[in-house]
Here is the input.
Amino acid sequence: MRFSGWRVLKEGLTGNKGWAPHWRDPEPKREYDVVIIGGGGHGLATAYYLAAEHGITNVAVLEKGYLGGGNVGRNTTIVRANYYLPGNSEFYSHSLKLWESLEQELNYNAMMSQRGIINLFHNDGQRDAAVRRGNAIVNQGDDAELLDREAVRRLAPFLNFDNNRFPIMGGLMQRRAGTARHDAVAWGFARGADMRGVDLIQNCEVTGIDVENGKVTGVQTARGPIKAKKVALAAAGRSSQVAAMAGLTLPIESHVLQAFVSEGLKPLIDHVITFAEGHLYISQSDKGGLVFGSYLDFYASYAARGNLPMVEHTMETCVAMVPAVSKARLLRSWGGIMDMTPDGSPIIDHSPIEGLYLNCGWCYGGFKATPGSGNVYAHLIATDRPHGAAEKLKLDRFCSGVGLMDEEGTGAQHNLH
Here is the structure.
């Protein structure tokens, strides 16, 4: 079943009776070439690229709940490639290029909107840092544009430019950045993987990982044992818990990151905008709701909810940057479980156990990384060699200290990244 304007028109005129399910609901087989633990964006994207680019279709994606029920549906939908440090910069550049052709490749409307992102700066030091970052982004082959105060005012006149504590001096803009519909991204990858023969198995919690003589042999699940030649972790905030089933300890803490959406409003914010001093990021959805978030809750937790002090801080910062939203009503909030590494950058690598692969530590960058993560992870699993865009995302950097990517310059402390 392919989607097209003609198909939508035809179904609308004939009672929408011709639509088929987007994916099958298969029973798990006894053995697969690859088992992927985690049916979120990264797991589904990995399965898709394994089938589409490497011809590996004897694959199962195991999800303990429903597909897309984790972090891929609990974020602020931002897509960008404005990273500064080598290792991160080439990876997110690779991912953004995949985003730009994703809807055509999947034949699925992911509601990709390249509306641009503006990172505001408020003092001379932040301006100089924005210049360095912009130059690094351009040197990487992506777009970046330094805006002065008046250029920002023309694009976003609703901002509070004369905030006494944090006056807006300008911003760094990436016009190719934007947003995408998080649920649709998961559904599109799920549909694409299923069409190529991948088994997507929901309500199938992994309860153990079988290892014999230093080599993975399969997994134990709530629906019985499954043998596998290779097992790939893609469990986001639950990565430490899943890795522990194989006896591994990962350099990860899990923290809650809250996000919020307001009632629907008339069009106000055309871009994604970040407020450097308050660490706020905000955009407006197609339905009119303002989607925004700020810092992590500063304690480790597996609860998909947050604390009230961070709610208060986020609202204060939002109103400080955009006073016009002070009378808007908050519609809902949610929390995602972030797998935070000491340097704030991800891990895509072999594990010390043969046949067991790691995809974790995405911190704030998980959603925007979805196609890139799946693409390079599939390459690693299929070839046992790192993809060129992910060569620096190694696990051993936390042992050697060589190649650490402290993108925010906040040191080796999980809850500050």
